[in-house]
Design brief:
With about 325 residues, this protein is mostly helical. The chain has 2 domains: about 80 residues, no CATH class; about 230 residues, no CATH class. The chain is built from 17 helices and 5 strands. The strands form 2 sheets. The protein has a 3-stranded mixed β-sheet with strand order 2-1-3, with helices on both faces.
Length: about 325
């Protein structure tokens, strides 16, 4: 309305989605500009009112239909420039572009960016798994108010599920040239290529792993402790992502989750029948007595050397 230039919107055509839509209908991912487009759409469909205007104060509290005719015409004649990124571009490059453009007032987290540029069936699966009630309880996410939890808002819960699949089956040992964030993105892109049967099996394995850990260690399974003499002197946190790596991935490395998941439906319906004493609180306390392990769950959660140390420590404990 003030004739001030609107910054360009960056979009990417979704070829995979277009295959499922009607002919000559294109679908796009908004790489940068979602907040601008949402605000424009909601205002022009009557969902928003103008507030706090210091210029054109006379239209404060107006919705779209209440604007003077000359302002309506001005709005309807404006254009928003869109720049389209090649839809065939490598997902990691697209992620990098998204990250560079993402300099607005609300910065998206790594998993929010992946969710935009690495969509697919496995991405849908990890979002579903992040809502598994037992998993949420160990992450200290209340089912009653989950959407207001910071982990859910920033999709950190979804990234934790992705970490599990990226690091298991020896993935934590693999040396990599790219950074850890790129490693997770590349893993998600690869896992999106799996067929539905494989994804269903992996979902069952994740759930049986979390269910068994919960049955043995309870809701504070992934908490960090300061320990002396095999006794927890102080629980330093109720959830620690590095401890999650160690216990969840270490457990998955030692136990045959595929075999454990064979009677998955029964165990989900009868959680009290889940294997007990596979790992105990006293066993985990012994981990924290090791200064090396304590150091490995402190500081950067993505330090590869620390990841290897803490997962190996749990593998050795359970074998």
């Amino acid at each position: 309305m003030l004739n001030i230039p609107i910054p360009a919107i960056f979009i990417s055509q979704d070829i995979d989605v277009d295959e499922e839509t009607e002919a000559e209908v294109s679908r796009y991912t908004v790489i940068d500009g979602q907040q601008r487009l949402t605000a424009i759409f909601e205002f022009m469909t009557g969902q928003l009112r103008l507030t706090g205007l210091e210029i054109l104060k006379e239209i404060n509290d107006c919705n779209y239909k209440e604007l003077p005719p000359f302002l309506l015409r001005r709005l309807e004649e404006r254009t928003v420039k869109c720049l389209r990124i090649d839809s065939t571009i490598d997902p990691q490059v697209k992620y990098d572009i998204f990250e560079r453009l993402n300099t607005g007032s609300i910065k998206l987290e790594a998993q929010e960016l992946r969710n935009a540029v690495a969509r697919g069936k496995f991405n849908d699966a990890i979002k579903e798994l992040s809502k598994f009630s037992v998993f949420r309880e160990m992450l200290q996410i209340s089912e009653n108010d989950a959407n207001s939890n910071a982990k859910v808002k920033k999709m950190e819960d979804v990234e934790l599920v992705l970490r599990f699949f990226a690091l298991r089956n020896g993935g934590y040992k693999i040396s990599r040239k790219s950074g850890f964030k790129d490693f997770l993105t590349e893993t998600l892109v690869d896992l999106n290529k799996l067929d539905e049967t494989e994804i269903v099996q992996m979902k069952r394995e994740f759930k049986i792993c979390m269910l068994t850990i919960y049955a043995n260690l309870g809701k504070y399974a992934f908490s960090k402790h300061r320990v002396e003499g095999g006794v927890s002197i102080k629980r330093m946190s109720t959830f620690n992502a590095a401890v999650y790596d160690a216990i969840a991935v270490g457990f998955a490395e030692v136990h045959d989750l595929k075999a454990m998941a064979q009677d998955f439906d029964f165990k989900i319906s009868n959680p009290d029948n889940t294997e007990s004493n596979i790992i105990t609180e006293h066993m985990t306390y012994s981990l924290f007595e090791d200064s090396g392990f304590f150091e490995s769950v402190s500081g950067s959660v993505n330090d590869v050397g620390k990841i290897v140390y803490r997962v190996n420590a749990v593998v050795e404990l359970l074998t």
